[in-house]
Design a protein that fits this description.
The chain has about 375 residues and is an alpha/beta fold. Helices cover about 35% and strands about 20% of the residues. It folds into 2 domains: about 100 residues, Urease, subunit C, domain 1 (Roll), CATH 2.30.40; about 280 residues, Metal-dependent hydrolases (TIM Barrel, Alpha-Beta Barrel), CATH 3.20.20.140. Bound molecules: N-(iminomethyl)-L-glutamic acid and fe (iii) ion. Keywords: Cytoplasm, Histidine metabolism, Hydrolase, Iron, Metal-binding, Zinc.
């Protein structure tokens, strides 16, 4: 089955060999998809025949968004906590334990239903790849269950047993459990391991011990780093060759320099600062130092209950001073780098046919028209939704 998408006004390829600027923009082109891959990109006048046709009507076509950071396996919500925060309460991460209790009490069907509803919600907003973490089970059975369910929805599954120490547990004993029986039970379903390295969660030594144990089990690494306070998370991520250091809200000069000279992406999660009414990370400082930046939603019931990459792009542009091109790049190619994937995040022959047709003539409209549903068609693995 082949599909011709023609009459494209602006094609964001993210491939500077193909087009102009950071986004590798091409104009008046057509794309042919065959099966789950891009087969051809070229001038509209030379388009080959195909089984089906999508007329882009001179609108913009982008790679599907790559949301490289989301916590979708949970039950319940924390609307009351959000309301209290907007009335002046601080965010501490303490509500993770509220969601833990609701998650443990939920059936598999409830957890899977909730997570798949969020994946569908994200897809309608242009997300074609989403990472899903555990982290609300916080015991062996419920962490393993969370990952088994997550693996039904994505290949990008992340073991986050080290989200917080559950109530009543001794911290040292819990770290031993995470590195031991919990890791053994979760590793079959997890591609990645992550630790919340921050005040009130895990310190540098604990984080290192858990990540090193996970790496020995064959998991790749990512770190929740420097969200609430400055700390060792970013430097540990770089030292352990983690694919991504996520949040990066409180970073030092040394942190920025370490990221700039590394293979570790800084994943910024502006939905979390929005929903916790916190200062945004300094994206300009990271970008200007040459750090690779990704944008992701952090979708979770506590600190960022949004599945919308367009919303995060709008925040990044308006409040973090990223250009529209930088934000779109970070939400697509940046996310792909944060997942160490080269088959997504770019549009070129051989790439996965994951793309969106915007109901707008350019990528700039994603930030220029915030809150407006601009995603008209989404192809995932070559299949229109
Ligand atoms: O990324 N920071 C740690 N974890 C989540 C918050 C989870 C929660 O509050 O439930 C985050 O913001
Ligand atoms: Fe998170």
């Amino acid at each position: 089955m082949s599909i011709l998408i023609d009459n494209i006004g602006e094609l964001v390829t993210n491939d500077q060999a193909q087009g102009e600027g950071l986004l590798g923009i091409r104009r008046d082109v057509a794309v042919v998809v065959e099966g789950d891959r891009i087969a051809w990109i070229g001038p509209s006048g030379q388009k080959p025949a195909a089984d089906a046709r999508i007329d882009a009507q001179q609108r913009a076509v982008l790679p599907g968004f790559v949301d490289s950071h989301a916590h979708l396996v949970f039950a319940g919500d924390r609307a009351a906590e959000f309301g209290a925060r907007m009335a002046g309460e601080p965010y501490t991460g303490g509500g993770i334990r509220t969601t833990m209790a609701a998650t443990r009490a939920a059936s598999d069907d409830e957890l899977l239903g909730n997570a798949s509803r969020l994946v569908d919600e994200a897809r309608r907003q242009g997300t074609t790849t989403i990472e899903i973490k555990s982290g609300y089970g916080l015991n062996v059975a419920d962490e393993a269950r969370s990952l088994r369910l997550a693996a039904k929805l994505t290949t990008e599954t992340t073991f986050l047993g080290a989200h917080v120490v559950p109530p009543g547990s001794d911290p040292d004993a819990y770290v031993d459990l995470v590195k031991g029986d919990m890791l053994d039970a979760c590793a079959p379903y997890a591609k990645w391991a992550d630790v919340f390295c921050d005040r009130g969660a895990f310190d540098g030594d604990q984080t290192r011990a858990i990540l090193e144990a996970a790496a020995r089990k064959g998991l790749q690494l990512r770190v929740h780093a420097n969200q609430l306070v400055a700390g060792p998370g970013v430097q540990l991520a770089v030292e352990l060759d983690a694919a991504s250091a996520d949040h990066c809200t409180h970073v030092s000069e040394a942190d920025v320099a370490a990221l700039a000279g590394s293979n570790t992406v800084a994943t910024l999660l502006p939905g979390a600062e929005f929903s916790t009414r916190s200062p945004y990370p300094d994206a300009r400082r990271l970008l200007d130092a040459g750090v690779t930046v990704a944008l992701a939603t952090d979708c979770n019931p506590g600190s960022s209950y949004t599945s919308s990459m367009p919303f995060c792009i709008a925040l990044a542009v308006r409040d973090m001073r990223m250009t529209p091109a930088e934000a779109v790049h970070a939400a697509t190619a940046g996310g792909a780098r944060a997942l160490r994937r080269d088959d997504i995040g770019r549009l070129r022959p051989g790439a996965r046919a994951d793309l969106t047709v915007l109901d707008a003539p350019s990528h700039i409209h994603l930030a220029y028209r915030p809150g407006v549903p601009l995603i008209s068609t989404v192809l995932h693995n070559g299949v229109p939704r």
